[in-house]
Amino acid sequence: MDANTPDGLLRWFSELEDPRVGHNIQHVFSDLLAIAILAVICGAEGWVEVAVFGRCKEDWLKTFLHLPNGVPSHDTFGRVFSKIKPDQFECCFLNWTAHLAKHKKRLVAIDGKTLRSSFDHANEKSAIHMVIAWCQENHLVLGQITTDAKSNEITAIPKLLELLDIKGAIITTDAMGCQKKITENIVDAEADYILQVKDNHPTLHGELKLLFEKGLRDDCLGIAYDFHEHTNGGHGRIETRRIWVTHEINWFSERRQWKGLSCFICVEATRTQQGNTSVERHYYLSSLEGILACEFLALIRGHWSIENKLHWSLDVNFREDDCRIRKGHSAENFSRLRRLALNLLKKDKTRKVGVKCKTKACSWDHDYLLQILTQ
């Protein structure tokens, strides 16, 4: 293979074990992997479509793949990927994404996503829930790990952090990740955190609510704080965000139990649309020092890019929530193929169009497809 084939990408997956055993193996494992990656980049949503893609592109694929017995059937794709070890696949994926994310990962957002159609009533198998690390700076999926349920994010997040190189990064999570052990994991890895506080820590949440509500009325009771306000609007909606940050935390009796704790934050969002106004307040704790309130606000808003740029894109562009793949490890491994494809499509800056349009362009233009793979 030369530089203009998938070989450059596949070298990152060379340590992935072929799960097949025996002598009656008719297809080369790297061919299966290459066709699956190419097909998903071009919009394939299941193993039948992966096989159809392969048959439609067989003459072209033969110019750089082995294909000793032609393109495998959809049953073969499904059977092989259902047996590939997800942990091995993830290790290869992590090595590849570490290569892509070459510059400093300033903000790494961690959030969960359920593969809604992966449940299997017949085998009493619940839907797969993934915990995903997203680099806001690069718009790349850095890694993911499977949990049995959303409630298990608490144990999954430390495992995911162990897999990643987060030195120098700022880790953000929703309230599920606001745990003392997780702050310890983050600080020990020489990173910082901004964690949302909700009622899963009722005492802390109540104290922060009282602090900022009473403080807002009485000018923070003489406590030093930084403040910033930002207003924007569009589509008939006006939104004003106000943020208060205080580094005076000595009053908090449990402060030493939250490793690296440096400040408390309150964000108030006021939305006005069609004459109706709503106000919400959210509370956070952080290890960051020397950061202005306006920078904190940008980082907190940046966390939600994982919803807008990743989860939304996977559901709209790749129809992830509608995918009924469920046998063995197929659902988890196919989800990793989607994230691999999304990373490649977002990394390409040569065409100023959306992911969906790039997907179609790849299916129409072999040169562009190879460009996506070898960038």
Structure description:
The chain is about 40% helix and about 20% strand. It is an alpha+beta fold and about 375 residues long. It is elongated. The protein has a nine-stranded mixed β-sheet with strand order 3-2-1-4-5-9-8-7-6, sandwiched between helices. It starts with 6 loop residues before the first helix and ends with a helix. About 40% of the residues are buried. The chain has 14 helices and nine strands. The chain has two domains: about 5-85 and about 335-375, no CATH class; about 95-310, Transposase Inhibitor Protein From Tn5, Chain A, domain 1 (Alpha-Beta Complex). Helix 2 (about 30-40) packs across helix 3 (about 45-55), helix 5 (about 75-85) crosses helix 12 and helix 6 runs parallel beside helix 12. The mean pLDDT is about 90. The chain has helices at about 5-10, 30-40, 45-55, 60, 75-85, 85-100, 155-165, 180-190, 200-215, 295-305, 305-315, 330-345, 355-365, 365-375, and strands at about 105-115, 130-135, 140-145, 170-175, 190-195, 225-235, 235-245, 265-275, 275-285.
